[in-house]
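Issue: ligand-bound run for magnesium ion - logging full I/O for the record.

Environment: standard queue, default settings, no custom constraints.

Inputs:
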Amino acid sequence: MLWLTAAGRCSPRLRSADRLVLDFGGFDPQSVKGFLSSGDGALLYRYGLKAAAAGPLLEVGAYCGRSACYLGAAARDAGSRLYSVDHHQGSEEHQPGWEWHDAELWNAAAGRLDTLPVFLRTIRHAGLEGCVTPVVARSRDAARNWRTPLALVFIDGGHSMQAALADWRGWAGHVAPDGYLLIHDVHPVPGDGGRPPMEIYRRAIASGLFEPAERQEALIALRRVT
Ligand code: MG
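Outputs:
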């Protein structure tokens, strides 16, 4: 059991045998717009902490910063860093007229969705500005020029097949041996969610590079084996 304080200290406290409780000193990551459950957030934190000694962490798809709170806290507590990649213009499903459009995130002056101001505010309120680096870029552009082995990659980007495959192709090779690849929104039952995250999970297993490590709700953790 670990409690995180606003000051950034991390102290273990026993509360129950199997639950991780994250406390940001009054700031609740679940108050941030987003789609990640607190249980999935705790799993991100746990894997981030476990992996971080091997290098930095990276997430693809930041939105308003909810997942960055959990991974950023892991980076902070392990003395590492989280790189958070997003163009901050919203995925396909966030655009006007689509199911997950949020009018509050519309930047009228720019004439497009703009999640960057909210993301930066989230990181500031969570006390994580010192260990989270926003990379404002398309996933494929950032991946193409990336050179540092990563201890953990969390793919939670666009849900079109094109976007999901670009995330897999762009980032899987950057995961260090024994590092972790986590994929969000993997729904084994058709109809429970979009197929592209499930498709990249299948490709990860078929590649022989990764083996399943853990599954929780729609979040899957894979370990790089070669
Ligand atoms: Mg997601």
